[in-house]
Design brief:
80 residues; 80% helix; mainly alpha; single chain; 3 helices; elongated
Length: 80
């Protein structure tokens, strides 16, 4: 599988899973406590923050993997 597809699936997972869980849990908790729509909205907000964290982590890891190490970029001193 190509790197682009791996990143796509990782990012998609970080978007879909927290949102789906928050939607299901928020609706159920609102029904249990009669607080509609407050728990649902709060859970969705938390899921949004979790998704942003996960996406940022995936992108940072990918950038770190494709960026050469600092030691490789340094030019060795010349002997005159």
């Amino acid at each position: 599988m190509s790197d682009a597809l791996k990143i796509f699936f990782r990012v998609s997972t970080w978007v879909a899973i927290p949102i789906i869980i928050s939607l299901i849990a928020g609706k159920w908790l609102d029904a249990q406590f009669g607080t509609s729509p407050w728990i649902f909205l709060t859970a969705t907000g938390v899921a949004f923050i979790v998704s942003i964290y996960g996406i940022t982590k995936v992108i940072k890891d990918y950038i770190r993997s494709i960026t050469p190490a600092k030691k490789e970029l340094e030019v060795p001193p010349t002997k005159d």
